Amino acid sequence: MILVKVRPEWLPAGLPPFVVRLFKEAVVTRSHRAIHLPSACLFFTLVTLSPIAASPADAGIFDFLKSPTNHSDAAPATPAEQPAANAAVDNTDDAALGEIPMPAAKPVVANSAATAAPIVEWAAKHLYCVEYARIRSGLQIFGDAKYWWSKAADMYARAAQPVADAVMVFAGSKRIRHGHVAVVTAVLGPREIKVDHANWQNRGEIDLNMPVLDVSKDNDWSKVRVWDPRSGQYGARVYAISGFIERTPPVTRGS
């Protein structure tokens, strides 16, 4: 094989480094002995490449092989030197492209029981009012609902007016012989509250966010009307109320 090598002194100054390495390395031909590249061929090759080596680096085709450097004589502009109108121009361009500026974040307001609509849910099994009220309130009272008021006397605080999270006790009647209990979720006003309770329709369902209206003469919450989810209004029947059981221990009188 013929190894054609170029002497370093033959190469003109200013060539890119990779061109110098190209001519210093061996070039394989079909012979088996090494010769030097003819002067005429070398001269023609170097003349062809000279304009590329002499051209500015910014306009050369070898820029992508070089390290990224700034060939400009002027110092790069700092952020302070940028035109002040650039920001306004960018905003105008965004608007022209149809981009809508992001609105200011608004505080997330949780949907409270006071504004929630009445709904009916169904559990995996038939639920009675006492077991549902016990789970929701944490009160450890057992037996028929109409007895909860008397049983709570030495266990929990009792109140005549509704309190959030308290259990409202319905006295026994012809319609509800075993009484009824419901958990107060919100006090809407002096005569209206909302409750969660179970089995009000005798179907084992869970009635949530149900309004209850005080219809007593003295506004003492002794008589109420309860929201009927099927008709979407207060029921016509009036129910007697024993009171409200709070989850706090009873107040002990000093000796």
Could you explain the architecture of this structure?
With 255 residues, the chain is an alpha+beta fold. It has two domains: 3-65, no CATH class; 119-245, Alpha-Beta Complex (endopeptidase fold (from Nostoc punctiforme)), CATH 3.90.1720.10. It has five helices and twelve strands. The protein has helices at residues 17-24, 39-54, 86-96, 129-137, 148-151; strands at residues 3-5, 27-28, 35-36, 119-122, 158-159, 167-170, 180-189, 192-198, 205-214, 223-228, 233-234, 239-245. The strands form two sheets. A six-stranded antiparallel β-barrel has the order 6-7-8-9-10-12. The termini are far apart. The model is unreliable at 26-41, 52-62, 64-74 and 76-111 (pLDDT under 50).
First-last Cα distance: 120 Å
Measured as a percent range, the helix fraction is 10-25%
Strand content range = 15-25%
Please provide the count of β strands.
12
Quick summary of this structure?
This protein has 5 helices and 12 strands. With 255 residues, the protein is α+β, with helices and mostly antiparallel strands.
